[in-house]
Design a protein that fits this description.
Radius of gyration: 27 Å
Shape: elongated
Helix content: 55-70%
Length: 181
């Protein structure tokens, strides 16, 4: 009979003490930061599959939203997107070296874009020793060249240009074929 009246009174109490409640919660979290982190870590470990499935389901239900965000990020960060794409390809080919500096690679891509705008001509970032024959995805194995020149070069190895070899099976096989130590 008094359900509405009781609910109204409870809502009013909650909102009257809202600021005070927030302060108490914040203080508790500050005092118990490490304990809370440990509890969260344990929960994630204990519920790994459940959380993975939940995340996957959320992605499936919001796929277009995530894709739109990804397109927007790529539009705003073309140099980082180029680095991400080339890193993905390099990982597949096992062409990454421990000394690879992605900030320098991003700088090379930024320079390429500036040069293309300045000269009103298309330029590419070229792997001096192509990844497809065993070259490394490394800043010392990259250069900016004219797009036509890069397309003409294709996946040819030109020893005079230098470059850096990867430490993978493909590189070892190619170097053996070419008689390089």
């Amino acid at each position: 009979k008094n359900k509405e009246k009781i609910n109204k009174r409870n809502r009013e109490r909650y909102y009257l003490n809202y600021e005070e409640s927030l302060k108490k919660i914040k203080a508790y979290r500050e005092e118990n930061r490490e304990q809370i982190r440990e509890q969260q870590k344990k929960y994630r470990e204990d519920n790994r599959e459940y959380l993975r499935d939940k995340k996957k389901k959320h992605y499936e239900n919001n796929k277009e939203h995530y894709r739109a965000k990804g397109r927007e990020w790529r539009r705003k960060n073309p140099d980082k997107a180029a680095v991400s794409d080339s890193r993905k390809k390099a990982r597949i080919l096992e062409a990454m070296l421990p000394t690879t500096d992605e900030k320098l690679i991003e700088k090379i891509h930024r320079e390429r874009r500036k040069l293309s705008k300045k000269d009103n001509k298309e330029y590419h970032v070229d792997h001096i020793i192509p990844l497809s024959i065993g070259g490394a995805h490394h800043q010392d194995n990259m250069r900016i060249i004219d797009a036509k020149e890069n397309i003409a070069k294709s996946n040819k190895y030109i020893p005079e240009l230098g470059g850096v070899w990867a430490d993978n099976t493909l590189a070892r096989e190619t170097k053996k074929k070419l008689g390089i130590k």
